[in-house]
Amino acid sequence: AAAGGCATAQRATPADPQFLNQPLISSIYTADPSAHVFNGRIYLYPSHDIEAGVPEDDLGSHFAMRDYHVFSMERVGTEVSDHGVVLRLEDIPWAGRQLWAPDAAYKDGKYFLYFPAKDKQDIFRIGVAVSDRAEGPFKAEPEPINGSFSIDPAVFTDTDGQSYMIFGGIWGGQLQRWATGTYEQNGSVTDLKQPDKPALMPKIARMNADMLTFAEAPRDLSIVDEAGKPLLGGDSDRRFFEGSWMHKYQGRYYLSYSTGDTHRLVYAVADNPYGPFTYQGVLLEPVQGWTNHHSIVEHDGKWWLFYHDTQLSGKTHLRNVKVTELNYNPDGSIRTIKPMR
Ligand code: FUB
After folding, report:
1. Chain-centre distance of CA 256, in angstroms?
2. Which of 105, 226, 293, 299 has the largest count of CB atoms under 10 Å?
3. Residue of the nearest CA to atom 8 in ligand 1?
4. How far is the CA of 33 from the centre of ligand 1 (A)?
5. What is the per-residue pLDDT across 35-67, written as a single tens digit (0 to 9) for each?
6. 242 is catalytic
7. In the prediction, which pLDDT does 14 show?
8. How far is the CA of 32 from the centre of ligand 1 (A)?
9. In 10 A of CB 114, how many CB atoms?
10. Biggest CA-to-CA distance, the chain
11. Which burial class, exposed, middle or buried, applies to 53 when counting CB atoms under 10 A from its CB (0-12, 13-18, 19+)?
12. Which residue has a Cα nearest atom 3 of ligand 1?
């Protein structure tokens, strides 16, 4: 009872020992949850996984999603409302295929849905769609964001109101093909293949006040070790792969991301949104399924980690969103979460 309507699902409360092991949504497959608090309510902007019948490969071709739903809940542990389909592939003039991990933002009475999709030349770009309501539906802009490329946009709005887009992903996310500044059609399908050189880093661009355009050319977000040296391409337990998220805690900036082929969520900390970010440790150990992707949000006096696994299907491209509490130590470090598998 999902598409088009406003379906709800009953679930256990956070006090229930089974709570952390239950998918938040089981009416459709959902992944890559970006959570935001708008008007006191938690809104979720996930990918909508489907069985498209595309064989699995290192490019992620089997993630062939075609639309987005929005979900919301009063607080964690209450009913989750499905607000139905809010944007379809066929309604995005420039897009060809693969609607991957989205994010959302709010400014001056408008809500913005940011999403990656391959254009008609099969190059990932990042688009934006606009609505008057957090739950959509959203109307896509006619072109992708000028200067955007690769995948997994995460839009962070600082306490001064300035927003930034963090984005990028290697392998199927194509970031390695932009290493020279222009797209290399026949570039590597994985990474730079330079394990002793600095790894590819996520990108950041300040947003203009219209929230539709970049105010600057995207820059690298440098992630360094405790000695200040950039993480290397061969450091697959720690280097950036995809799925960035930025949040602020006690005045410091936390950049978290997936290590992809080592399946972890890890984080790094800086004193400003441009970094450099110093690597800190593991946020979430590997989950069931290949991908690991998340968001972090504060609500009701607690911090929450939204993530996904493949409990419902056992298939890596048919995922389900979950949530668990995230806790900090007194020194600001995050306590590592071990998911139930
Ligand atoms: O959902 C498709 C892709 O899988 C996302 O863009 C990545 O972050 C990974 O979760």
Report:
1. 10
2. 293
3. 243
4. 10
5. 999 999 999 999 999 999 999 998 999 999 999
6. yes
7. 62
8. 6
9. 26
10. 53
11. exposed
12. 100
Is residue 18 predicted with pLDDT exceeding 90? no
Q: Is the pLDDT of residue 151 over 70?
A: yes
Instruction: Check if the beta carbon of residue 253 is closer than 8 Å to that of residue 246.
Output: yes
Supply angle C-alpha 85, 73, 288, rounded to 5. Answer: 75
- Which residues 6+ apart lie within 8 Å of 318 measured at CB? 29, 49, 50, 51, 310, 312
Amino acid identity for residue 200 in this structure? L
Q: How far apart are CA 222 and CA 220, in angstroms?
A: 6
Atom of ligand 1 nearest to the CA of 172: 3
Predicted local distance difference test score (pLDDT) of residue 58 = 86
Verify whether residue 298 is a known catalytic residue.
no
What distance, in Å, lies between the first and last C-alpha atoms of the chain? 28
Render pLDDT for 243-297 as a digit per residue (tens, 0 to 9): 999 999 999 999 999 999 999 999 999 999 999 999 999 999 999 999 999 999 9
Q: CA 62, CA 65: separation in Å to the nearest integer? A: 9
Over range 149-169, report the average pLDDT: 98
User: How far apart (Å, rounded) are the C-alpha atoms in residues 165 and 204?
Assistant: 6
pLDDT confidence tier of residue 204, bands split at 50, 70 and 90: very high
State the pLDDT confidence band at 4, using cuts at 50, 70 and 90.
Answer: very low
Is pLDDT of 16 > 70?
A: no
Contacts of 240 (CB under 8 A, 6+ apart): 168, 170, 199, 200, 201, 202, 223, 231, 257, 259
Q: Would the pLDDT of 15 be above 90?
A: no
C-alpha–C-alpha distance, residues 54 and 56, integer Å: 7
Kindly list the strands in the beta sheet with 29-38, ordered across the sheet, starting from the edge strand earlier in the chain.
7-9, 80-88, 67-73, 41-49, 29-38
For residue 201, what is the DSSP state? -
Measured in Å, residue 258 CA sits from the centre of ligand 1 at 10
Assess contact for 93 and 87: CB atoms under 8 A: no
